[in-house]
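Hi support team,

I've been running sequence recovery on a batch of backbones for a student project. Most finish fine, but this one hangs at about 90% for roughly twenty minutes before it completes. I'm not sure whether the input is malformed or the queue is just slow. I've pasted the structure tokens below so you can try to reproduce it. Let me know if you need the job ID as well.

Thanks,
M.K.
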């Protein structure tokens, strides 16, 4: 846990946020209440090598022991999550996905939805092109800055 400055913070709030990190597998969480902002983040354990970022996680659909994990965070056509939340490929459960691999997209077109604090946020395309790779599963928790898809 990292505290930027010493302030009076409810220890139960910190415990609750820590439990939430454990339950969701997120790397950090930040909230603001009554003008006080609290951020709780995981630290790498001694003897473990920290991940290169959210893109370094291997998802079950991509898991292949023989293949190395690609780091899409540096790709010029990457669309990253602007917030922590849950990514959805459609605007409603069971609905048609907003985009598929091979979909031609224009600037501003909604490609995914990220739910954060019970608010559905459309994630627009930052550029025109063709969706080359979708890096998240429907209903997957995502972190701020995590690569969501690649547009070429």
């Amino acid at each position: 846990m990292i505290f930027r400055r010493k302030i009076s913070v409810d220890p139960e709030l910190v415990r609750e946020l820590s439990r939430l990190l454990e339950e969701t597998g997120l790397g950090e969480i930040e909230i603001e209440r009554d003008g006080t902002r609290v951020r709780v983040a995981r630290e790498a354990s001694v003897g473990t090598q920290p991940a290169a970022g959210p893109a370094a996680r291997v998802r079950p659909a991509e898991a292949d022991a023989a293949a190395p994990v690609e780091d899409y965070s540096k790709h010029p056509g990457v669309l990253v999550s602007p917030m922590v939340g849950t990514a959805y490929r459609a605007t409603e459960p069971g609905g048609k996905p907003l985009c598929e691999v091979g979909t031609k997209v224009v600037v501003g077109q909604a490609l995914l939805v990220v739910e954060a604090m019970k608010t559905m946020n459309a994630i627009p395309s930052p550029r025109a092109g063709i969706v080359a790779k979708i890096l998240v599963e429907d209903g997957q928790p995502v972190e701020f800055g995590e690569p969501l898809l690649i547009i070429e």
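--
Follow-up from support: It reproduced on our side and the slowdown came from queue contention, not your input. Helices lie at 11-24. No action needed from you.
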